[in-house]
Amino acid sequence: MSGGGHGGHGKKGGHHEEHEEHEEHVNHEAWVIPYADMLTLLMALFLVLFAIGRTDLEKFKKLAESFAQEFGGGGSSQVVTISEGQNGESPLDGGDGVLDSNSLPSTAEGTGNGDGTGMATPTDLQVEHAIQEQLKEEAQEALGELQGLGEAIEDAAAAEGLGDSIAFRFDGRGLILTVTNSGVLFDSGKSDLKLAGQVVLQTMVPALQAIPNKIRIEGHTDSVGDEYDNYELSADRALAVLRFLSLQGGFDERIELAGRGEWDPIADNATEEGRAQNRRVEIIVLSDISLDPALEIDA
User: Fold this and answer.
1) pTM to 2 decimal places
2) What single string gives the DSSP state of each residue in 212-261?
3) Does 61 reside within a domain?
4) What's the CATH code of the domain at 199?
5) Per-residue pLDDT tens for 178-191?
6) Residue of higher predicted confidence among 61 and 201
């Protein structure tokens, strides 16, 4: 009897062990998650490679410049093209690309900068070229804005029937506005601004008020008479124009003046026509940067 009881107890214990094994569950499909992640990453990689392969060179350059800025490379970067070669359509065809040993400077054995990183170091010439290109782009943008301003002032003058009274040109400082008829602004030897001159200047006012640029007013004369008297006359005429513009409001302290006398002619003082061109007041809209790089391109 006692043996039977012992057997019954063993059976109960065995049933308990079978129950414990049934509770344990092994997930044989856990590998699916990392496998799916790997496939997703591979697909993303292929999409990036495909996009880079189909983008045009300009977009690729912009992408490279963007990366250079984000990683401290500055506003300009030297981009080595890989789309076309000198003798083929890719660097593998002997082109001037990233695989071309002549495309990257080398200061050690092999290609690279000699520090073991394999990265190319821009030469001084490349850096200077990149800086000059950046300056040209900025100057062209500034020139375009001032070109639009000059055309707007010409259109305003034309609307008042004064289209032939104002001309503009550029130098490295900015936009130079000139009243072409010297007799419109002042009588000979005088510095009192005439009514007709005020009308001409008024056509410039709205456009000049709408910009933040500093404005420089320069007076000029011909070479007739004493040069120091001419200097005082040119300064007085510049002051008369400055006062008129200031009275219109909206200029704050953006206006400055200078008398140049007879020392900066734009025509030959030996002729009456040349002297008439030299008797002028110029309103110069100053650029924040030099326009010389852009003007050299246009030339």
Assistant:
1) 0.60
2) ---EEEEEE--SSS-HHHHHHHHHHHHHHHHHHHHHH-S-TT-EEEEE-T
3) no
4) 3.30.1330.60
5) 987 778 899 888 99
6) 201
